[in-house]
Amino acid sequence: MFRRVPPVVAGPGQESVWDYPRPPRVERSTRLVTVVLGGVEVCRTTRGIRVLETSHPPGWYLPREDWLPGSLHPAGGSSFCEWKGVAAYLDVVAGDRREFRAAWTYDDPAEAFSLLRGAVAVYPGRMDVCTVDGEPVRPQEGGFYGGWVTSDVVGPFKGPPGTSGW
After folding, report:
1. pTM
2. Could you read off the pLDDT of 82-105 as tens digits, one per residue?
3. CATH code at 50?
4. Structurally, how many domains does the chain consist of?
């Protein structure tokens, strides 16, 4: 049964995920985003793309050109998003680590999500650290979604047990 939870009131400089739209909105960002795996910075960009969907912390998609050469490897398999289309998975490799199917990309996204074409998203909990403007990201709970939780985004967030109907 669907049970709406009261949103956390956003403070100054914060966003509530309950103000994000459905279907999701896609927007460019100039914030500095980094991804580290195996002690190696595998991505650094100020050209990230945020996907903002009701009840979810932002998903970050980072231009493939800003990834360390050799850090992304096709992983096989796919999944389907009702909004974005078919995602292909990637392994992320750096230092002494290989995280299997820890990243995904949309090579041919739905038209409304064309900004995502070829950009790469990762599960932040599978990396050493992901940061936004120097702040370490906390992964969205639950393991299925790849949202990035920072201090400027408030929930509650979909993902933990009991939230699948949100």
Report:
1. 0.95
2. 999 999 999 999 999 999 999 999
3. 2.170.150.40
4. 1
